[in-house]
Amino acid sequence: MQLILHYDETYREVKYGTMGLQDIDNKMLMGINVTPIVALLYTPVLIRFFGTKWMMFLAVGIYALFVSTNYWERYYTLVPSAIAIGAVIVPLWASLGNYIIRMAQKYYEYANYKEPHVQEQRKAPRGACHKYIILFQTVFFNFFYLSFVIAEMPMVFFLNQYLSPHDHTLFSVKECGTSVTHGTLPGLNKTVLQTLPRSLNLIIVESVLMGVAFLSMLLILILCGSAYRPTEEIDLRSIGWGNIFQLSFKHMRDYRLRHLFPLFVYSGFEVLFVCKGFALCYGVCSIGLENLAYIIIAYGFSASIFSSLSLIMLKMPRQIPLVAGGVVHGFLIIALFCWAPRPKDLSQSGTVYLLTVLWGLGSALNKSGLSIILGMFYEDKERQDFIFTIYHWWQAMAIFVVYLWSELPMKAKLSIMLFALLVSIASYLWMERKISQGVNPRIPKIPKPRHKVRGYRYLEDDNSDESDSEKSDEQIDDDSTSDEGEQMAEADNRALRNGAEKDVQRQKREQPQYNYEQAVEEEEAGKNPGCKEI
Question: In the chain, where are the structural domains located?
């Protein structure tokens, strides 16, 4: 809504004069799209430092800050807030993906609390949480795609009543779809508003948006529990900040992640393409700007409903949703290659909405299937934030590429999309083949925690939480055990000495007896000869 208002030439001149609002909008978009490039360097550190829940809370707070800048639209408010949003896009989605997987695992522990490994807080068996991961990701994407619907409510209930009809806005538009040779929608009228909205009405709409932003912050604060136990969070931080910084890069050695990189990129391509390229060059170009909100709403509803199809992974192989979503998008891209709608022709609205709904089907299978597969592959709680950081960083790179290609012809954009789709499907099937052959992935070792924090966690070397009486009791126990050990050692030594003395006495007793008997025999033998001589 805000970009449409800023696009209108009359609105800019009346409200902002010579401030250069359109140039500010371009710099805002640059800040949002370029800043996430460096997010791989700091995202894991931020998540480990603040924690998963508080990282989500902080990121949503920055979104609320961006909404608040609409009250006072100036260069020094809009551009810094846009850069801040670009900086927290990857941390927000990485922490959100990590949080959903952790909630699925914790629900497994809740549902199977009688199991010995749950009671002893040991690691769950491999694959035990897969069912819950599928269910939680499905429910999440059911609600996530509804955000596309809710985001268009200000345009439906407020802005549409000020828009000019399509005969005016599309008066100079001569080509649509694949006939567009440069830009997104060349020829669109510079004045798209019939009348300018009153400032009071704009303030009311912006206040509603601020209320929604604060409500989302409160929901995270009140309803979302901690993703980890306090001792687990200390363990996650205690591996060293240098190791935390490096582990995102080290996880890229895993061939499973490398084979999924093209899918990460394509998932970023397809969402922005349907919301910008398709919606403008095919939808708005043929049925008017007043129907833009309904195109996005149709996409959101279809993707939300079709996200439930990912439940088939409970009974069928995991390859089916991703491959099926890729096949649907492949046919749609080929169809878009062959179709160039006529400008200002409302009779083509059925075709536009049908393609939108089918694109939502492919998007739902793609997004939900990819997140579920990542949750299945990386069940270790020590790795999930690194994995989802890599996933959403590649998506951010794809968004940056879409920002760069805005001036390319539509055929070039579709060619890039089709090439990325074919490479991603081929790479994914190759990965599944390696897994079926038993090729072991190269997973980096997570360093052991090095506990330096005192006063919070029970440490083996120095327990800072125990009282003085406990310490004295432990010292008495240690002294008593040491005294008992010394007494036992002395008893053993005494027994050995007594045994040695008895042996010596026995030898002494035997030695004189043997000599006395021998002397008597010799004496008797000596007397006999003497008697004979006498």
Answer: 2-436, 468-534
pLDDT at 504: 55
How far, in Å, CA of 361 to CA of 500, rounded?
92
Which pLDDT score is estimated for 524? 56
pLDDT of residue 521: 55
Task: Tell me how many degrees the CA angle 371-395-21 measures, rounded to the nearest 5.
Answer: 135
pLDDT tens per residue across span 148-163: 999 999 888 888 888 8
Write out 481-526 in H/E/C secondary structure.
HHHHHHHHHHHHHHHHHHHHHHHHHHHHHHHHHHHHHHHHHHHHHH
More confident residue, 168 or 149: 149
The CATH topology of domain 2-436 is Growth Hormone; Chain: A; (1.20.1250)
Sign of CA dihedral 346, 348, 351, 352: negative
- The span from the CA of 286 to the CA of 358, in Å, is 18
CA atoms within 13 A on the CB side of 343: 21
Question: Is 359 within 8 Å of 300 (Cβ atoms)?
Answer: no
Residue 534: predicted pLDDT: 33
Evaluate whether 370 touches 322 at the Cβ level (below 8 Å).
Answer: yes
Mean pLDDT over 319-333 rounds to 94
- Looking up tokens 């199977």 gives 112
Chain-centroid distance of CA 421 in Å reads 22
Distance spanning both ends of the chain, measured CA to CA: 152
